[in-house]
Design a protein that fits this description.
Elements: H1 5-14, H2 16-27, H3 38-41, E1 55-58, H4 59-82, H5 88-95, H6 99-105, E2 118-126, E3 130-137, H7 145-157, H8 159-168, E4 171-173, H9 177-191, E5 203-207, H10 217-235, E6 243-246, E7 251-253, E8 258-260, E9 267-269, E10 271-275, H11 282-289, E11 294-296, H12 300-304, H13 308-315, H14 324-333, E12 337-339, H15 345-350, E13 355-359, E14 369-370, H16 376-389, E15 392-396, E16 402-406, E17 412-424, E18 427-437, E19 452-460
Helix pairs in contact: 1-2, 4-14, 5-6, 9-10
């Protein structure tokens, strides 16, 4: 396996461990064999597929990445109030949301914890640009975390990986998504004044539909419930509490609280973590407004997830609306981004190969048009579509650094990579990477577009 100096250097920038793993691969051909990683590759989550090799990142490098994600998150979370003064009409016009949508997003119950939301920033790194945020998703059904938690044991128990980790000799760990989520919501609940004096904290993870089409839901729920009780004991040993996985049909909105009507005795629900793209009953927002339930994330997550927020940050990079430290964060971690409006046409057309067009509310990489991969005529047509829609962005196109990962039945090839970094309010909460062979790269590195996820292992060098 031939590895160029540039790629070795890219891995060494992640950690000495990452470079050492490449040396290990060269000496152990089993690392190149797909069959060596059956436990990882045989696990299936819909269209989400996992890559057999993990990404080894030094503790210091990962802390810098998490800090960048938290700093960008805080700026985005401040936008509705800082730039719009929570004015419904201004927000509706800028983002192109309906009045009814904005009313729900800005309901006082939805705004209860805008700086404590669950989110994931998607970042790309290159030596020429540094670490840049391509988008930030602040919806509680963000992907990657739950799946990576389920796969974690396979990475540590796969013989060839276990042998490398043991032989390397450093402490190698992973920040768990679910554990971080439970720690975050329980800390907020325990600090919530209306809950003082209570002897239990019950949390409901609410889905649009409880789906067991892949099997194993019962075992998953049992593991999550055990983890929830464990973290609750860590936070407050005297506190009781239960976790339920449900949909809104089994939650009853009472006058002053939310109740879960399960198979047994009804339970008061103190925390709701919705996984329904922010679509929640309005009477739940009323209960949240009264302070009797905490909600993560609710409809406010929709506005926070718009790519137009990056345009607002980029456009105001030198504004006194932001502190010197905040302006430095924008400069370092937000790529040049603009809302597509009249007057930008000539620039967008003439700089096609340096730009990318994106819908403000797009998901899964769909609707993204990288200029270097889009023919000039198609690019111009799409720019006109964006102008008419009035909620698209044009962004600087940033190529990924190149790395080496396993490929096919046997071998390893050059890949490009995007970093998914989780934040829960003011804290970083681990993450994962998505890798795609360079030969397959059409300008978008996304699981729905064929990229594979892998877990990030943090190394104390």
């Amino acid at each position: 396996m031939k590895i160029s100096k540039n790629i070795y250097d890219a891995h060494r920038d992640l950690s000495a461990c990452s470079a050492a793993f490449l040396d290990f691969v060269r000496e152990n051909s089993a690392c190149l064999e797909q069959d060596s990683f059956k436990g990882i590759l045989s696990t299936y989550f819909g269209y989400v597929k996992f890559h057999p090799w993990p990404t080894f990142v030094s503790e210091n490098t990962w802390k810098k990445m998490e800090t960048a994600a938290v700093d960008v998150y805080r700026l985005i979370a401040s936008i509705p109030e800082r730039l719009f003064g929570l004015d419904r009409d201004m927000i509706s016009r800028y983002y192109r949301f309906s009045e009814a949508e904005v009313k729900s997003m800005l309901h006082k119950g939805a705004l209860g914890c805008p700086r404590d939301l669950l989110g994931r920033g998607d970042f790309i790194y290159s030596t020429s640009h540094g670490l840049k945020c391509l988008e930030f998703n602040m919806v509680s059904n963000i992907g990657g975390g739950w799946q990576a938690d389920a796969l974690e044991p396979h990475y540590f128990n796969t013989p060839v990986l276990a042998r490398f980790i043991k032989g390397y000799g450093a402490e190698i760990t992973r920040t768990g998504f679910t554990a971080s989520l439970f720690a975050h919501v329980l800390e907020k609940a325990l600090d919530h004044e209306p809950f003082s004096g209570k002897d239990e904290i019950n949390t409901a993870v609410v889905m649009s539909k409880v789906d067991d089409s892949y099997g194993g839901l019962g075992a998953l729920v049992h593991r999550l419930q055990a983890l929830y009780r464990h973290i609750l004991r860590q936070k407050n040993g005297a506190m009781r509490g239960e976790l339920v996985i449900t949909d809104f049909s089994r939650l009853k909105m009472m006058k002053d609280h939310v109740e879960f009507s399960g198979d047994g005795e009804a339970k008061t629900i103190h925390v709701v973590v919705e996984k329904c793209n922010g679509e929640v009953p309005e009477d739940l927002l009323d209960v949240v407004e009264a302070g009797n339930t905490l909600l993560f994330n609710g409809p406010v997550g929709t506005i926070m997830s718009s790519k137009l927020n990056l345009a607002l940050l980029s456009e105001n990079e030198n504004s006194d609306l932001f502190s010197p430290e905040e302006r430095e964060t924008i400069k370092n971690h937000v790529p040049w981004t603009r809302k597509v409006t009249a007057g930008l046409e000539d620039y967008i057309v003439s700089h096609r190969e340096r730009l990318v067009l994106k819908p403000g509310g797009g998901l899964g990489g769909y609707g993204v048009f990288p200029g270097p991969r889009t023919p000039p005529d198609r690019w111009k047509q799409q720019m006109e579509v964006a102008l008419m829609a009035k909620n698209w962005v044009v962004q600087e196109y940033i190529p990924s650094e190149s790395y080496i990962y396993q490929d096919g039945e046997r071998g390893a090839v050059e890949h490009h990579m995007v970093w998914g970094i989780f934040v829960f309010g003011p804290r970083g909460a681990g993450g994962f990477t998505r890798v795609l062979p360079t030969r397959d790269h059409k300008g978008v590195i996304n699981a729905s577009q064929g990229a594979r996820l892998n877990i990030i292992l943090e190394v104390k060098e």
